[in-house]
Amino acid sequence: MTPVVNGKTHRFGVRGLYNGLLLMGDYETGSYWDHITGTCLHGPLKGYQLEIYPLLHMNVAQALAQWPEVHVALSSELNLIQRLLSFFMVPLYRSKWAIFPPVVFKKTMGKEDTRRKRMDLGLGVWTKATHRFYPLEMLHKQRGALIDELDDRRILVYIDPTSNIPAAIYTNAIQYAWHNEELKLDNGEIFRGGKLYNTQGVTQAVVYPMQMLTRWYGFALTFPGCQLYQA
Amino acid sequence: MSNVNSEIEQQNNQSQESINTFDVNRAMLRDKDIFASFHVKTTYPLQETLDRGEVRGKTPILVMNHEAGALTFLTHQINPHHLAYGEMAGKPWMVIF
Fold this sequence. Notes:
The structure holds two protein chains of two kinds.
Chain A: E1 4-5, E2 8-9, E3 12-18, E4 21-26, E5 32-34, E6 40-42, E7 55-59, H1 60-66, E8 71-73, H2 80-94, H3 103-106, E9 121-126, E10 131-135, H4 136-141, E11 145-150, E12 153-160, E13 165-171, E14 176-179, E15 182-185, E16 190-192, E17 195-197, E18 203-204, E19 210-215, H5 216-222, E20 227-228
Parallel strand pairs in A: 10-20
Antiparallel strand pairs in A: 1-2, 3-4, 4-5, 5-6, 9-10, 9-19, 11-12, 12-13, 14-15, 15-16, 16-17, 17-18
Chain B: H1 16-20, E1 28-29, E2 38-39, E3 44-45, H2 46-51, E4 60-66, E5 69-74, H3 75-81, E6 83-88, E7 91-96
Parallel strand pairs in B: 2-6
Antiparallel strand pairs in B: 4-5, 6-7
């Protein structure tokens, strides 16, 4: 996100919970903001929209394949307990044994969408007009990839075999085929090791729609009535 | 820092419904930060961090795909902060997870 409001940089912090999700608050006005959409939900700036950009889940090898010069921000502000807790909490959150959301989160939740189980993990993809959830279970049943329409464009939704993390990218391909850990598209492009190659073997820029790896409840409460991908 | 060559989708996805239906009585609102945000002042080449053995190839990370460029965060480090912010190429950014 870009924390700029009416041309002025604002400072934000985590200052609340709503629908079992974090709310951001800005220091300048005390307004509260949806952390997924960047929309101000409550306070003097209600209705204001921050610019948002994809926040992608991947691993170090994948990131370096796409952005060889990319930098990393390393925090030295965590104490030992925080480090240990976070080290174990992230895998737990992603696992099927996740016990979240905690009671304090549940109290903030509205009427839930029961089309999926609350803690089902998946990839939420959205544009201004379309909000769609791809359950991870469904992606696995599709052998880890599918091509779908998102507004007037096609997207490839796939589980990267090197990280086992789902992602969506824009494509003009219509069909795909796995060859070991390579994903071959019928437009001649190949996904290999976190990189997209064209027919000449040259690395291609990857274009991502807005997306997030999320639990069903978080996406469904953020985008009420969202589309649910059905094979 | 390499520039991100990919097209950046700026989704001004203002959900009027979520604004109109916001229930302040259900929300937990605080006037101070619940978690200590991570103010990023220095970044390091990820490749060098890998070469030094501080991360592994399979280490989970988050990649901010901002108009100012890409920047990565170790998932297990960002989790306790939940929010990180800073400037890149003179442009302010923030991520929340």
